[in-house]
Input
Amino acid sequence: DLGGCDFTQAVLVGGSLRGANLKGCTFRDADLSGTELGAVQVGELTQHFKGCTLSTEQAAGIVAALGITVL
Output
């Protein structure tokens, strides 16, 4: 349960946020490129992850989960 945590400007290396309660969290300007995100919902992206850094693989996974194919 990470509900309400402030990860502003944090650099998270390793670990997983898969299935974590992120209600009320903020990751503004955080670097999550080394962290497993699991299934992130679009609403969470705009609400919790605005301004954070993701890897290309993480971004591709999010887009694929939306049913979008990137060539």
Notes: The first strand starts at residue 11 and ends at 16. The chain has two helices and two strands. Helices lie at 42-48, 56-65. Residues 56-65 form the longest helix (10 residues).
